Fold this sequence. Notes:
By secondary structure, this protein is mainly α. The chain has helices at about 10-15, 20, 30-35, 55-75, 80-100, 105-130, 135-140, 145-155, 155-165, 165-185, 190-235, 235-240, 245-295, 300-345, 370-375, 425-430, 460-465, 475-479, and strands at about 380-390, 400-405, 435-440. Pfam families: ABC_membrane (PF00664), ABC_tran (PF00005).
Amino acid sequence: MESKVILKEKNAYESANFLSKIFITSSFTLFRRGYKQGLTVEDLWQACESDLSGRLGDRLEEAWEKELETAKRKGGKPSFSKALISSFWVEYMLCGLLCGLLFIVVWFLSQGRVGMRVRIASCSLMYRKILKLDRNGMSKTEPGQVINLMSNDVNRFDMVTLFLNYIWVMPIVVPVVSYLVWQHVAWATLAALTVIFLQTVLVQAYLSNRQGVLRGKIAKRTDERVKVMSELVNGVQVIKMYAWEKPFEKLVAKLRKMEVNFIMRTSMIKGFSTALSVFTERFILYSAVVAYVVLGGNIRAEITFSLVQYFNLLQLACNIFFPMALAFLAETMVSIKRIEEFLMLEELTPVNAIEYINTKGSITNGSEKAIIEKERPKPTALVLSGVSASWLEDPIVPTLRDITITAMPGEFVGIAGLVGAGKSSLLQVILGELPPTQGKISLGGARISYASQEPWLFVATIRQNILFGLPYDKTRYKK
Ligand SMILES: Nc1ncnc2c1ncn2[C@@H]1O[C@H](COP(=O)(O)OP(=O)(O)OP(=O)(O)O)[C@@H](O)[C@H]1O
Ligand SMILES: [Mg+2]
C-alpha cells in the first residue's frame, strides 16, 4: 500500500560509491538543505530498496517459516530470536568488524541501520500475521497489545544493535589494556581488575537483569492501559449515556499510575547505573594506585597519567557500553518473547483452500481438487448445503445451523433476520473467516467482493482508500 506522503527523490545512498557510503557524504546535500531551510517530510528521500518492508519481511518470514518447520519436526518450540539471528547476524557482525576499524559515527550509523532493518522486518512479519489470525488468535490478542508491540517493543531492536557488539569487544579490550597497565604497575593491576569485575560483572549484570524484568512488567501494564483506553473510546456513547465518566476516569488514572510506577523504577535503575559508571574510572585508578604504593611501588606523575588514559578506555568499554549492551539485551529478550507469543497465535486456513468442505467440516484441496472440479455444479456461483458454524469452541447452540442456500450468478438474494441472528456470520463463513463445523461450501469459481457492515477508512487520502493498493487507472477511477 502506498503511503500518504509521496516522496519524490530517490535515495542518494543507493547510487553512492563505497567511500561515500562509509563517510555518508551522499547525505550532505540533505543536511545542507536542512541547515538552510529546514526539512519537511516531503524533502526526505525514498527508502533504499534494501530497506523496504516487503523485502525485509520476506527475509524474516522465510527464516520464521523454517523455525516453525524445524520446531514441528523436532517437537520443540520455535524461537523468534533464532529467526532474527539467522536473518541478520552476518550483516551485523560485518558492521561490527568494519566499524571497529573506523570511527564512532559510522559505528553508530551502520549498526543502527541493521537495528532499523530488524525493526522493519519484525513489523512487516507482525502485520502479515494480523491478516492471518483466526477467531481464536483474535480473541487472545487486543488492538492495544499489537500497537504496543509495533511501537514500543520493536524499538528495542534499534537500541540493542547500537551496543550489542560491545559484548565481544569488552573481553578483547580488557586483556589488552590490562597488559599495558601491567607494564607500569605490575601486580597492582589485579586490584584494578577486581574492581572492574565487581562493578561490571556483578553489579551491572544484576541491574541489567532487573531492567529486563521491569521491562516485561511495563509492557504488560501498557497493554492493559491501551486496551482499556481503546474499549473506552469505542464505548464512549454508553459511558456518556449512563454518566460513568468519573469511575472510568479513576480506572484509567489507576492504570496510568501503575505503569508510571514501573517506569519510574526502571529510570531509577538506569540513573544509578549511569552514576556508577562516572565513578568507576576514579575508583579503579584509586585502587590501582593504592595497591601499587602498598606493594612498595613509587608512584610518579608519568605512571598516574598513563593509567588515567588506560582506565578511560577501560571505563568506556566495560562500564558504559557493556552495561548498556546487557541492559538493552535484557529488554530486547523480553520484547522478542512477546513478539514470539504473538506470532504463535492460531492462524486462519488460507481462503483459497476453502473450495470444498466435506461433511465433517474438514477442508480438502490439492490432489482432491480434480474431484471437486467434477462435483462442483458449474453454473452455480455459490452453494452452501447443511452448513453449521460457531464462533465458540464448544457451543451449546451453534451460531449457524444447517444452512442451505444456492445463489445463481447475477441473482439478487436478501437475507433477513433478527439482530444477532447470524447474517454477518453467514457472510464470514462464505469468506472463509469463520470455518464451518459441518456441511459443504462451493464458491463455484466465483470471485467475491465484500462490503463490511461497519464502514472504515484507513489513514490515507480518499483516493488511496478507494484504490485500496491497486494502481491508479484514471478512466476506471472516474467511472
Ligand atoms: N467476531 C466474533 N466473535 C465472536 N462472536 C461473534 C463474532 N461475530 C459475531 N459473533 C456472535 O455471533 C452471533 C451472530 O452475530 P452476527 O453479527 O452474525 O449477527 P447479525 O445477524 O449480523 O446481526 P446484526 O443484525 O446486528 O448485524 C452473535 O451472537 C454474535 O455475538
Ligand atoms: Mg450483521
